[in-house]
Design goal:
The protein is mainly alpha-helical and about 100 residues long. It contains 3 helices and 3 strands.
Length: about 100
């Protein structure tokens, strides 16, 4: 497994990236004293890949190659952003936990 990010994993630039940021900004941030949930970002993939490409992923269809992890992560994120309030993939909808680790996708 290669830990080297592919070119598709870099944060995008240009008009499409600006539109994606505006859409992401519409997803509210939910905060409590112990947890902060926010919209997913492309930079979240690094942590996702570390889990998906390891033995820790055996109960989520893995371990995966980095390419398979990218396909899985982007599929989940597309669903989460297309239907941000759905109770799919564990109920997180369009949010990601931040600050201390990965809460799952």
């Amino acid at each position: 497994m290669s830990e080297k990010p592919g070119p598709h994993e870099r944060p995008p630039v240009g008009p499409a990236a600006a539109l994606a940021q505006r859409l992401s900004d519409r997803i509210p941030v939910l905060e409590t004293a112990r947890l902060r949930l926010r919209a997913p970002r492309i930079t979240d993939f690094r942590i996702y890949a570390r889990i998906a490409c390891s033995q820790r992923a055996r109960f989520m269809g893995g371990p995966m190659t980095r390419e398979e992890a990218w396909d899985d992560c982007t599929h989940v994120q597309c669903l989460a952003l297309a239907w941000p309030w759905c109770v799919d993939h564990g109920g997180e909808g369009g949010w990601r936990a931040v600050g201390g680790g990965c809460a799952g996708v």
